[in-house]
């Protein structure tokens, strides 16, 4: 068979024939020549063989190119996925850190600014269990408006006003023990333990009063507020040992905390 | 599974390569893991190997060396990969003259520019007419596409002629 180099002179014609570029007359003439010219016939056979091989090469290369392009696309997709995952992880870490720092800061802030715990300090106010005052039902009686006002002022923390109102309550309208008791309570609540003590003492001395046990606790606190440590300790011990005293537990906590000491 | 696979063989013979493209997309990662486990191959090398195997498989189908689809295609392809790695070819091969002629043309084809390769692939493999080739390649019209194709074919024939001339003195004494 002829070599590809020998194909050169026939290539134009063979291509026009193979690609259907000839007119019907030209095509017929070319087919005639194929029958009679051995060199042309051999060139045509070589051309056909090259075309067949080229079809194979083109298919082979098309698949190879498509696979390479697909491979590149898959690589890019994988890289993008890895990048997205990494970014998500980084964002999660960042938000996690921010959240943790915020929580720690808030916790720190809360620890710093929280209202002092009931038993965190050593002052009597930290341990004092205040009297709730007379309930509204007991004071709304039309004959005791001043007592109601005194209790309202007391509950709102306006102790001098509460004291003023209490002292205006007619004595025939209120038991002496109650009057003395709340005088002591209001004075103690405004921080004047020394002044509160005589009132509370007199309540205790009243025979058969129901306020006696309560008054003992408040008197103990009044001793503490007045920094009368021995009296305070004795009074608290008494309350703590009295199983009927409603403030027994509060007194026990004070004694357990061992805070009744200081300069007199 | 068998029916679509049998159809796939027919489609491949007709030039529809989608089956192999899908196979590559679905099995690329699996093959890379297999190649790493069995032959300590890096993923990029394994991917290249799988592509070569798929092209080889395609050639087998097109050449008629493979007339029946293997019952387990994945096993068959992985076996081909193993053979390539161990350089022990057991699958049917083309007669040496034909294989050498095609390889020679493949090498010459590789020396053409990218545009020429594309034009020839469109015309000879896809079977596009000149009008469609012009549309795909951005040529002005079908005549330009025809002239481009003629020009590329000439270049290919020249490259092949030159390659044969280069090989002739050394191959003659051996023959």
UniProtKB/TrEMBL annotation, chain A:
Pfam family, one: TPR_16
InterPro entries associated with the record: TPR-like_helical_dom_sf
Cross-referenced Gene3D superfamilies: Tetratricopeptide repeat domain
Stretches that traverse the bilayer: 95-113
Domain of life: Bacteria
Keywords on record: Membrane, Transmembrane, Transmembrane helix
Protein name in UniProt: Tetratricopeptide repeat protein
Source species of the chain: Hymenobacter metallicola
TrEMBL record, chain B:
Domain of life assignment: Bacteria
Annotated protein name in UniProt: Sigma-70 family RNA polymerase sigma factor
Source species: Hymenobacter metallicola
Lineage of the species this protein comes from: Bacteria, Pseudomonadati, Bacteroidota, Cytophagia, Cytophagales
């Amino acid at each position: 068979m002829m070599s590809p180099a020998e194909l050169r002179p026939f290539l134009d014609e063979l291509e026009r024939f193979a690609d259907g570029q000839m007119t019907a007359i030209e095509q017929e003439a070319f087919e005639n020549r194929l029958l009679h010219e051995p060199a042309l016939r051999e060139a045509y056979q070589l051309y056909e063989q090259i075309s067949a091989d080229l079809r194979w090469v083109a298919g082979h290369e098309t698949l190879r190119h498509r696979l390479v392009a697909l491979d590149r696309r898959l690589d890019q997709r994988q890289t993008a996925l890895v990048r997205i995952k990494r970014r998500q992880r980084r964002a999660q870490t960042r938000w996690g850190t921010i959240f943790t720092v915020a929580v720690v800061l808030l916790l720190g802030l809360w620890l710093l600014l929280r209202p002092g715990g009931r038993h965190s300090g050593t002052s009597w106010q930290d341990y004092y269990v205040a009297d709730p005052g007379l309930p509204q039902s007991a004071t709304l009686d039309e004959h005791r408006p001043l007592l109601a006002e005194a209790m309202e002022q007391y509950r709102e923390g306006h102790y001098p006003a509460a004291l003023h109102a209490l002292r205006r309550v007619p004595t025939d309208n209120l038991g002496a023990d109650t009057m003395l008791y709340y005088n002591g309570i209001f004075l103690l609540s405004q921080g004047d333990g020394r002044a509160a003590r005589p009132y509370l003492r007199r309540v205790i001395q009243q025979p058969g009063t129901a306020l006696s046990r309560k008054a003992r606790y408040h008197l103990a606190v009044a001793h503490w507020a007045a920094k009368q440590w021995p009296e305070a300790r004795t009074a608290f011990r008494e309350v703590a040992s009295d199983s009927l005293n409603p403030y027994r537990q509060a007194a026990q906590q004070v004694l357990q905390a061992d805070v009744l000491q200081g300069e007199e | 599974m068998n029916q679509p696979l049998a159809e796939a063989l027919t489609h491949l013979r007709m030039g529809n390569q989608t089956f192999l493209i899908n196979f590559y997309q679905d099995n690329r990662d699996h093959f890379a893991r297999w190649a790493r486990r069995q032959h300590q191959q890096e993923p990029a090398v394994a991917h290249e190997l799988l592509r070569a195997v798929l092209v080889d498989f395609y050639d087998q189908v097109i050449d008629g060396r493979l007339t029946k689809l293997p019952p387990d295609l994945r096993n068959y392809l992985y076996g081909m990969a193993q053979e390539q790695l161990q350089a022990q070819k057991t699958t049917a091969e083309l007669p040496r003259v034909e294989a050498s002629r095609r390889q020679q043309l493949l090498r010459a084809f590789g020396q053409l520019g990218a545009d020429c390769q594309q034009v020839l692939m469109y015309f000879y493999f896809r079977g596009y007419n000149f009008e469609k080739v012009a549309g795909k390649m951005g040529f002005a019209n079908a005549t330009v596409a025809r002239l481009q194709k003629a020009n590329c074919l000439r270049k290919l024939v020249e490259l092949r002629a030159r390659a044969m001339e280069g090989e002739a003195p050394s191959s003659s004494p051996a023959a």
